[in-house]
Design goal:
CATH topology of the largest domain: Ferric Hydroxamate Uptake Protein, Chain A, domain 1
Number of domains: 2
Structural class: alpha+beta
Shape: globular
Number of strands: 8
Order of helices and strands: HHEEHEEEEEE
Number of helices: 3
CATH architecture of the largest domain: Beta Complex
Largest sheet: 5 strands, mixed
């Protein structure tokens, strides 16, 4: 009975597109699915410093999850977020540097794609879904 319920749930998730193929492999085989590698660069143009980290994200997972994992794994990386009820979490500080309304500074999310193009993300760290091997920049800048 429990196996039938689980299988029904998996089929519903597959039909609705909520479940990735790798998670299905995990459910069927009991083995952990691979994580997708990404690069994360913290760029502070005011101090002319950049620090790049190699990390990974669950397939179909959001950037915030990869950042939380990186924060656990590497003590040189830390960040804080604040929850906005309409737009979800947004970055407040990265590596001890916080944006301030008074001086118009904030953390911008920019993505360099594997094909060489680049764009400023139109969503925050709680909604952005990185693709394998993307290079993501957290830019401390002004608006």
């Amino acid at each position: 009975m429990a196996a039938t319920t689980l299988l029904s749930t998996v089929l519903v998730l597959l039909v609705t597109g909520t479940l990735c193929n790798r998670v299905l492999v995990l459910l069927v085989t009991g083995t952990l699915c691979n994580r997708d590698p990404i690069m994360l660069t913290v760029a502070n143009g005011f101090r002319h410093t950049n620090h790049t980290y190699s990390t990974s994200v669950a397939p179909g997972g959001v950037l915030l999850g990869a950042m939380k994992q990186l924060q656990k794994d590497d003590s040189s990386f830390n960040f804080t977020t604040k929850e906005n009820p309409d737009y979800g979490p947004f970055l407040v500080s990265v590596n001890g540097v916080a944006g301030k309304k008074g001086d118009g500074t904030y953390w911008q999310l920019r993505v360099d794609y594997v094909n060489g193009s680049s764009t400023v993300a139109q969503v925050g760290v709680g909604c952005y879904i990185p693709k394998p091997n993307e290079h993501i920049f957290l830019n401390f800048t002004t608006y």
